[in-house]
Specification:
This protein has about 280 residues and is of the alpha/beta class. It has helices at about 25-30, 30-35, 40-55, 75-80, 95-110, 120-130, 225-235, 280-285, and strands at about 15-25, 60-65, 80-85, 110-115, 135-145, 160-170, 180-190, 195-200, 205-210. The chain is built from eight helices and nine strands. Helix 5 crosses helix 6 (about 120-130). Pfam families: ThuA (PF06283).
Amino acid sequence: MTSVDQPAPALTFARPVQVTVWGENRHEQAEPEVAARYPEGMHGAIAEGIRNNLGEASAVRTVTLDDPEHGLTEEVLASTDVLVWWGHAAHGEVADDVVERVHRHVLEGMGLIVLHSGHWSKIFMKLMGTTCTLRWRTEHDRELIWTVDPTHPIAQGIPHPMIIDEDEMYGEHFDVPAPDELIFLSTFSGGEVFRSGMTYRRGYGKIFYFRPGDQDFPTYFHEGVRRVISNGVQWAVTHRPERTTPTLLRYETEDFYTGHGYQGPMESDAESPAQSPAPSEEAHA
């Protein structure tokens, strides 16, 4: 493993970033070698990396698939700035109503970091609107992660290239929409390439997909991988006074002053802003 570059200055927030790490936690229970590799679970290793990198600038908790409501209750999501997601063997066990809840919170401004095989999770596929399929191989490939956007906040402090001695191979074509930003590109022992670090925006939420991290390898103890995830957490925070979904708004001419506080589609002409009394001069002041 290659050591990371000198750390970039941490971003400063008014309060610690509230991070929830979601882990499927199936391989750790069913496969002794995975449990030995990740004694605190993969979610535990991911959370440890974030805590080590962000320190008091973060407050990190872990939840798993087997928790009530998969640990993703309304209360948990409402208090989460950034959700980190790892899943693989049990995507289909994630309840659709929980997926809808997570989707709503992303549109309202919650950040989402999707790792490795989370590319086939219900929530990522819903946000992408594509099959999210790819090519793969588990044969101990060496991976080089090349930074193609060195000025991006997520790339700060990351070696170029970052070397992962052994990991699962992912190859193109990766069926996702063209990203807002391509940050990392991976090459593998077999000659394959893969867009391994990409960002998207959906509604008010920021999404970062990062490729490394198969259960058969100790990838989430790699200091560079941990740094990337931690940088991604800081990048994915959305600063808004409150969490709200983007809404359809109808305005009359010069109604941009207040909009009459209107939210959502009109149900009748009587509720139309056009039928409301004209705002007073004081309202425009």
